[in-house]
Design goal:
By secondary structure, the protein is of the alpha/beta class. The protein is built from twelve helices and 15 strands. The chain has helices at residues 2-14, 18-31, 70-75, 119-128, 149-160, 185-206, 221-233, 269-283, 298-307, 316-321, 324-340, 353-358; strands at 46-48, 51-53, 57-59, 80-86, 99-102, 107-110, 136-140, 167-170, 211-215, 238-241, 248-249, 262-265, 289-292, 311-314, 365-366. Strand 13, helix 9 (298-307) and strand 14 form a beta-alpha-beta unit. The mean pLDDT is 93.
């Protein structure tokens, strides 16, 4: 069914403006007669921040921004879904055009700017599917014109802890002015202190809700030291490494590569893997990491795990490879486990982190 849908609709989606194609993909997944996902190989199962994942492959925030199709996505074979980014109040985001497909580079640039239907709409949808099962996390962000952005995150933690499997604090989007400044040590420490306090206040009614921090791949190593140190001290449950990049690799060929916004897709892989490995060695096993950025094959997915990821997330790779990418990643991991005589994913997590961090810095990235 997944392969048939891919062959049927991808030519149509490619003929459309990228944002229109995304809207149509959401509508089609809403009505597609998808059967329940088949059982995964038991060796793909993993337990991360207290949750049992049937496989380590998630879809990153940004695809299902408004929590319209989390269960349809789970039926396509994902081990978990992250909806959002959700803001407290509805906001339109940046003006169109704001999404660009770089076909020559197998990449995407977006400057969507947290377009969101707002917390009320998303809360209703997640509450309605609360008994459906499956791991559905939510990515939360501040409104662009919020008088106090920390207050926005606290409010969202309090509202969504009861209906989300986990909550991701997103302070790393490049498309909301000033948002990435919240990664600076003093602001980040205050933010995480208040977010974790809010989580603890609602635990009695919500149960334990893991809180993750999503960072940019563009942090300096000194800033990464600060971010990891604060995350460890404030006892977050995990980190996502990372978001899109504002830098541009020197070899980009597509004319649209000069567009402003965050770059994702294949060209991000080398930088994303390096930042993941750098984060892994600094975390020292205190909490797990989710690896995102540049995954477009089973090989790059396994490399992400070996660089330090306990879970992975894909999005831009789906634009160019389709939903069949999920099955390819599963097959590649299972084949590797069989080849190496490994028992489970834990045998691979971080296996190459030390060697990755010993390599020269990927200097093809320049400020964009």
């Amino acid at each position: 069914m997944i392969g048939f849908l891919d062959q049927l609709v991808r030519p149509l989606l490619y003929a459309l403006d990228p944002e229109d194609a995304h809207w149509l993909a959401i509508r089609m997944l809403q009505i597609a007669p998808l059967p329940p996902a088949g059982l995964d190989d038991s060796r793909l199962a993993t337990r991360v921040f207290g949750l049992n994942f049937p496989n380590p492959i998630g879809i990153a925030a940004g695809f299902d921004k408004h929590a319209e199709i989390p269960d349809a996505l789970l039926r396509t074979g994902f081990g978990f879904v992250e909806v959002g980014t959700v803001t407290p109040l509805p906001q339109p985001g940046n003006p169109r055009p704001r999404l660009f497909r770089l076909d020559a580079d197998q990449a995407v640039i977006n400057r969507l700017g947290f377009n969101s239907e707002g917390a009320d709409a998303v809360l209703r949808r997640l509450a309605a599917r609360a008994k459906a099962g499956g791991i559905v996390g939510i990515n939360v962000g501040a409104n662009k014109d919020a008088p106090n952005r920390v207050d926005d995150y606290v409010r969202l933690i309090e509202r969504f802890a009861t209906v989300a499997s986990y909550v991701t604090v997103n302070i790393s989007s490049p498309n909301t002015p000033g948002l990435r400044d919240m990664q600076q040590a003093g602001v980040l420490d205050d933010l995480l202190a208040r977010v974790i306090d809010a989580r603890e206040r609602v635990t009695k009614n919500a149960g334990p809700t893991p809180v993750l921090l999503k960072i940019a791949p563009d942090l300096s190593l000194a800033d990464l030291d600060d971010a990891v140190g604060i995350a460890r001290a404030r006892r977050v449950d995990g980190m996502i490494v990372g978001n899109t990049t504002v830098t541009r690799p020197a070899g980009l060929r597509d004319a649209q590569s000069a567009e402003a916004g965050g770059l994702s897709g294949h060209p991000l892989l080398l930088l994303a893997d390096r930042m993941l490995a750098e984060t892994y060695v600094r975390v020292e096993g205190v909490f797990p990491l989710v690896g995102a950025g540049g995954i477009d094959s089973g090989v790059s997915a396994l490399g992400k795990i070996r660089a330090g990821a306990s879970l992975i997330q894909i999005y831009s790779g789906l634009v160019f490879r389709g939903l069949g990418l999920v099955g390819e990643i599963k097959r590649t991991i299972v084949a590797a486990l069989e080849r190496d005589g490994a028992q489970n994913l834990a045998d691979y997590v971080g296996a190459d982190a030390a060697s990755v961090t010993a390599e020269p810095w990927p200097d093809e990235f320049v400020s964009g």
